[in-house]
Design goal:
2 strands; 430 residues; two-stranded antiparallel sheet; mainly alpha
């Protein structure tokens, strides 16, 4: 028998499953919740199909520690079943997830997206946490413009004007979901808080963050640790929350644990443990941790032996990580040196100079001993024409700067040049 969404709670089995999958942060419990959703779906529950779809859409939709396989084809199948069986939650989720195709929209039993949204909002207003989150999302992401139609959208002359209207309402629904133990919307709530478009008191913001962290949500554990570090300089407390985040399964948070061990912040300094946690976070996809792991190999820090091949492998992953801040030049600096010298990789002057060009205007951001190495690499590139057109005057200038930083190799390369008798200050190789 098919079921349709109305106001109030979901069916008991679906309510129980949502709590297990989205608030337990326990893989075994999440698996039990998934099994309940499958049972409910087989019994014809349209809402269960919606949440099964979310389980297979990756970490943006469900905690990655649950171990659910990302399978967009399977997710699309479940979502289509949800919409076709009349789930209002399915229709609004399909819209948000980009799965509401024109064909599926035409086949919706629900007369309109607006009616579906009102059904979701009725559940939200009755206290259903996930529906509170979905209403907040519809407002935050602008889905309500499509839901409400052209006359509603015409009220706003710009995205900023819409956000000024929508953000305060979205914040209220997110806060209600937090009070009900659901942390999923906190990243969007933080954006609203930082926008100053909603009247969110800083104490209230921090209270919600701490509440969700203490409930066991690993992502907010990490966020609360950063708040304690950045705003209150509370080393021991920050470290404890970073470690809790890792223990709860947020492996990217291992970067912050590694950073604490590297600096002796809130815990005794321990380069070996720093490297272990950096590597854990690097393998989980953290761009910062990938750089730090590469840097350990590049420099031979602590008990880690210098290994240029290992350095290149991790530095390239950091450089290519789509989550890396485009302004972060750190991987480029060490890769430039490796490519030019053939350390851990084949000599590649073109790739070396591609990196060096991006570093040339930001040399003051480099650190010891990389600053001298990069200056030397720039000197070699220009003076010998490696990867770029030869410019001896410019190259000599960089070699001289590297020598001032104590580079012996730059001094040896510099000694290969002499001033030309002709040419008024030109340079020649000896």
């Amino acid at each position: 028998m098919e079921t349709k969404s109305n106001g109030g709670a979901y069916a008991a089995k679906v309510e129980r499953a949502i709590g297990l999958v989205w608030t337990s942060y326990d893989p075994a419990a999440m698996r039990r919740g998934y099994d309940l959703l499958e049972e409910a779906a087989e019994e014809g529950d349209a809402d269960a199909c919606c949440y099964l779809a979310r389980c297979h859409m990756g970490e943006e939709y469900v905690w990655s520690g649950g171990g659910f396989v990302r399978d967009e084809a399977l997710a699309a199948h479940y979502m289509a079943q949800s919409v076709l069986r009349g789930s209002a939650s399915g229709a609004i989720s399909a819209l948000r997830m980009g799965m509401l195709t024109p064909e599926l929209r035409d086949a919706m039993p629900c007369p309109s997206l607006k009616e579906a949204f009102e059904a979701v909002r009725a559940r939200a207003d009755a206290g259903q946490a996930f529906c509170q989150y979905m209403v907040g999302n519809a407002l935050f992401w602008g889905d309500s413009l499509e839901i409400e139609g052209e006359s509603f959208a015409a009220r706003f002359d710009s995205a900023e004007e819409y956000e000024a209207y929508a953000y305060p309402i979205a914040a209220e629904y997110y806060e209600r979901s937090f009070s009900n133990g659901l942390a999923a919307g906190f990243g969007n709530y933080r954006t609203i808080y930082e926008s100053d478009l909603a009247d969110i008191d800083s104490d209230i913001y921090e209270d919600y963050l701490k509440q969700l962290a203490d409930s066991g949500d690993p992502l907010t554990c990490n966020d609360y640790g950063k708040l304690l570090e950045d705003e209150y300089d509370a080393p021991e407390e920050a470290f404890a929350y970073f470690l809790k985040a890792v223990e709860r399964g947020d492996l990217r948070s291992a970067y912050n644990v590694g950073s604490c061990y590297a600096r002796g912040y809130g815990v005794a300094e321990d380069p070996g443990k720093a490297f272990a946690y950096y590597t854990m976070a690097a393998e989980a996809g953290s761009a910062n941790a990938q750089f730090q792991t590469g840097n350990f190999y590049f420099e031979g820090r602590g008990d880690v032996a210098r290994d240029y091949a290992g350095a290149v492998r991790w530095l390239e992953r950091a450089r290519d990580n789509e989550e890396r801040d485009e302004e972060d030049i750190r991987p480029l600096a060490e890769l430039a040196v490796c490519y030019q010298n053939g350390w851990g990789t084949a000599v590649d002057d073109k790739r070396a100079f591609d990196c060096l060009m991006r570093l040339e205007e930001r040399l003051d951001e480099l650190w010891e001993p990389v600053d001298a190495q990069v200056l030397h690499a720039l000197g070699v590139a220009y003076a010998f024409g490696r990867g770029t057109k030869r410019d001896m005057r410019r190259g000599i200038g960089y070699l001289d700067r590297a020598i001032a930083y104590g580079s012996e190799q730059a001094a040896r390369d510099r000694a290969r040049f002499r001033r030309s008798f002709f040419g008024l200050g030109g340079w020649r190789l000896r």
